[in-house]
Structure formats: structure tokens, C-alpha cells
Design goal:
124 residues, alpha+beta, four-stranded mixed beta sheet, 3 helices, 7 strands
Length: 124
């Protein structure tokens, strides 16, 4: 569908339980990679997010600018309403930015920092 957006997930948004809680459905997605980023771990303190994900630490992207750095993940096709639900789920340490994936697709990602930012100021 033309009204769908792509979100690159490398963490909890790939989990069945999280997808059912956040989106109300399970989303298979397509494997992809994100160049120029590395993963770190972030301590989560929001009890609601911990309850949904079952984890106190989640991965978070950090931009390196090195195309040799690759993060494996999944390109999820979401509706605009589901993107808004993902924004509400992600804690304030994450910022959403539009980035190119290894496949050539452009996707939204939730990351710590982005270098060149094309972020949506309504993300949260």
C-alpha cells in the first residue's frame, strides 16, 4: 500500500509480544541491514516498556559514519497509525530519523544520534 511507511527494527519491535501490544498485529518484515551504525545497550526505566518487552536493557543505534559498520535487522511495513504507536512505545532516549538501508530502501529508525538528521519533530 502507498500509505505504508518502513521502520527498520533491530530490537524489541521485532518481538511478537511487543508487536501485538504496540500494533495489535504481528508483522513479519524483510531482513535488511543498516550501514554506518553500531549497537549499544540502553537501560530502560519506563515500567510500561519493560512490561511489554520483558527486558530492562534494549539495544540502541549509534551513528558511526563508517559504512563498514552494519546492523542486522528487519524492515517492517507499518501504517502511519502504527508508526505513531511505535513513537509512543520508544522511550525518550531514542530519536526517529529517515535513513538509507543496505537494500536501497529508505526507512525510519530509532537511534541515539544520527549525524545528518531528517527526523520528525513529533517523534518521541
Amino acid at each position: 500500500m502507498d500509505d505504508q511507511v518502513i521502520v527498520f527494527s533491530y530490537g524489541t519491535l521485532r518481538q511478537r509480544e511487543v508487536q501485538l501490544s504496540v500494533f495489535g498485529r504481528q508483522i513479519a518484515g524483510t531482513p535488511d541491514r543498516l550501514p554506518g551504525y553500531r549497537l549499544a545497550m540502553l537501560e530502560i526505566t519506563d515500567p510500561h516498556v519493560i512490561a511489554i518487552s520483558g527486558a530492562t536493557h534494549h539495544p540502541i543505534l549509534t551513528a558511526t559514519g563508517d559504512p563498514g559498520d552494519l546492523v542486522e535487522g528487519t524492515a517492517l511495513r507499518l501504517t502511519p497509525a502504527e508508526l505513531a504507536a511505535a513513537d509512543a512505545y520508544e522511550v525518550g532516549d531514542y530519536r526517529r530519523a529517515l535513513v538509507p538501508l543496505a537494500s536501497g530502501l529508505k526507512a525510519w529508525v530509532y537511534a541515539a544520534d544520527h549525524g545528518e538528521r531528517e527526523d520528525d519533530s513529533s517523534a518521541g
